[in-house]
Amino acid sequence: MDYLYHILVLAMIFSIFAMSLNLELGFAGLYNFGHIAFFAIGAYTSALLSLNGVPIPLAVVAALVVAGVIGAILARFTLGLTGDYFGIATLVFAEMVQLLLLNERDITRGPMGLPGIPRPAWIGSGPESLVWFLLVAGMGTAIVFLLLQRLANAPFGRALKVVREDEFVAQALGKDTTRLKTKAMVVGSVLAGFAGVLWAHYITYISPADFTLNETIFVLLCVVVGGKGTNLGPLLGGFAIVFFGEFVRFIPIPSEFSRFVAPLQGMIYGGLLIVMMLKRPQGLISESRR
Amino acid sequence: MTAYYLQLIVNGIIAGSIYAMFAVGLTMVYGVFKFINFSHGELITWGAYLGLMFTSPPFSLPLYQAAVPALAITVALGLAQDWFIYRPLRQSNPVSLLIASIGLSYLMRNAIRLFWGSDFQTFNLPVARGLSFGGIYITIPQLFMVTAAVVFLTILYLLFTRTLLGKSLRAASDNMELADIMGINMTRVTVTVWVLASVFAGTGGILLAMDTNMDPMMGMSSLIKAFAAVLLGGAGNVWGALVGGLFIGIAENVSVAFISPGYKDFISFALIFILLLFRPTGIFGIKGGVR
After folding, report:
1. Which residues of chain A have pLDDT under 70?
2. Does A77 sit within 8 Å of B109, measured CB to CB?
3. CATH 1.10.3470 for the B2-278 domain, yes or no
4. DSSP strand E in B106-176: where?
């Protein structure tokens, strides 16, 4: 039972992360391949502050603010780029963040990572804390989902989709497209930071190895499989991919073959991305066109 | 002290000649098909590991013989990825192509881990003593790397400038639709581009593994360097990519004298970032406007 709770918490964290990416990728058409950087920034900011005695709620708020501000700065510099060039710039940004985390040992302890990240006292750390954390993660997921749903149905969300479909039309209709995209990136970054915060305080240990290109591909898969451009899609996609990943562990495999499991899982993830692009680029839940 | 800097520059030229080989293939594919092929990096890795497969039992070929079947299979992989994945996606959203190539890169990298494991491996070449030229050391494999790069790139130069096929390649990368209308055989162009890109990637991979070692991530890290070189030269510009590759190699190795080696990769990342923001047509800007 505890194991199921654990998977549920992981699925929720990744669903939040996937929904935040979807706001940029699905709604605004911004192919951000460095979204993991904001997950990492959220996790590291909150972890470092709370390890240095800052009360946890304050650390969390600070982490969200930092993620949002860095998101705005990145938006300021990269939004002039289009299509795949934007994707490369963001991917490179994430690699740079990872190198900083690895090399600024005085602050981040480099590859050793940060152990013993505190949790709020009322959640505690024993097995009974799982239920409480599940509650927190569940509430977080619900709030993020409802917030994004509201944004999607507001004029903001509709305007974003116009920008995605045809930037010139949006401009002709009098929309400030750069402003809209900047807003989408800031909100997306804050929410990715929030997912990172949950991750850091749930796992209680983070290291730069948790925030690599592999995780970017993982969350991209959640969005693409679920269906980009809807909020329900990435939510379900996050659950589906996390549960699939855990399910693979239970296939009875003789121990001498166990070293093949992780590469096979990776091959399936990669293959799934290709097949989705070839056969069903809109994902499981397709966006309704009105 | 001058010898120290000279040594760093020589190391940079050696690394740069390999980056140039990767960058040339990447930029050719970009020039004709207008997308960044992420799985180009995995062609590099596959070239090296196939070389390893044919040098170890049951084949146990010497490396120069093993390179032939290894490159043949790398070319087959390059053609297969175009035929089964990129060709069907050519008419759809360009980002679908990009995502598919990211997926393919991940698939191919994990296949390497499945077959050969994740550890560092080498060709088990005999340890060569460095040759000394007035205090600057170069090993035999390194000399070989530079020579091979020069030979390959010269052949490419002749192909591009002296043959009809080269002319049609240049036409296709200038404007694919127009080239098609003018009666240039696009199938032939497509096949040639993938064969050339795969051969350059595979050879570069084997050479790189000769000098250092191989691991499943080698393609990905080389790809980022190659991409920096491509941007430096202007996307789609083959000669720009060549000069760009050399520049990145030298910049990276000389930087070791000034900053912590942990930040060596930072140079190419920062270069990509700065170039994209301020000079997306490359510093040579012979062929501008492709953004």
Report:
1. 83, 121, 123-127, 288-290
2. no
3. yes
4. 131-133, 136-138
SS3 assignment, position B266: helix
Residue B36's φ and ψ, nearest 5 degrees, are -90, 115
Query: Which ranges of chain A would DSSP assign to H, the alpha helix?
Result: 2-22, 36-51, 56-78, 83-103, 105-108, 129-153, 155-165, 167-172, 177-203, 213-226, 232-248, 261-279
Contact B127, A273 (CB under 8 A): no
Query: So where are chain B's domains?
Result: 2-278
Task: Return the SS3 of B239.
Answer: helix
Contact residues, chain A, for B274 at CB < 8 Å: none
Q: Which residues of A touch B280 (CB under 8 A)?
A: 81, 85
Residue in the block written with tokens 């740069």: B16
- Are B99 and A224 in contact by the 8 Å Cβ rule? The answer is yes
In chain A, residues with a C-beta closer than 8 Å to the C-beta of B85 are 274, 278
Which positions in chain A touch B255 (Cβ < 8 Å)? none
Residue of chain B whose Cα is closest to the Cα of A111: B262
Residue B137: phi, psi to the nearest 5?
Answer: -100, 135
Residue with token string 């140039």: B20
Per the CB < 8 A criterion, the answer to whether B29 and B230 are in contact is no
Distance from CA of A129 to the nearest CA of B (A): 36
As a dihedral over the C-alpha atoms of residue B29, residue B34, residue B35, residue B41, rounded to 10 degrees, the angle is 20
Interchain CB contact of A153 with B (< 8 Å): no
Structure tokens at A201: 């305080």
List A114's β-bridge partners, or say none.
A206
Asked if residues B281 and B291 have their Cβ atoms less than 8 Å apart, the reply is yes
Indicate the residue type of B280.
P
C-beta of residue B25 within 8 angstroms of C-beta of residue B37: no
pLDDT digits (tens, 9 = 90+) for A180-212: 888 888 888 999 999 988 888 888 788 888 888
The mean of the pLDDT values for chain A is: 81
Cα separation, A49 vs A60, in Å, equals 9
Residue to substitute from B36, B232, B276, B278, interface A, most A β-carbons within 10 A: B276
Which of A30, A76, A84, A276 would you mutate first to test chain B, the one with the most B CBs within 10 A?
Answer: A84
* Residue to test with chain B: of A274, A276, A279, A287, most B Cβ within 10 A: A274
Chains A and B form CB pairs within 8 A to the count of: 120
Residue B51 is encoded by which pair of tokens? 């070389």
Which percentage of chain B shows pLDDT scores above 90? 11
Q: Is the ipTM of this complex over 0.90?
A: no
Radius of gyration of chain A (CA): 19
Summarised one tens digit per residue, pLDDT across range A117-144 is 777 767 666 667 777 778 888 888 888 8
